[in-house]
Amino acid sequence: MKTEDAMAHANPVHDLVVVGAGPYGLSVAAHAAAGGLDPVTFGRPMESWHAMPSGMLLKSEPWASHLSDPAGAVRA
Question: How far apart are CA 12 and CA 46, in angstroms?
Answer without folding.
Answer: 25
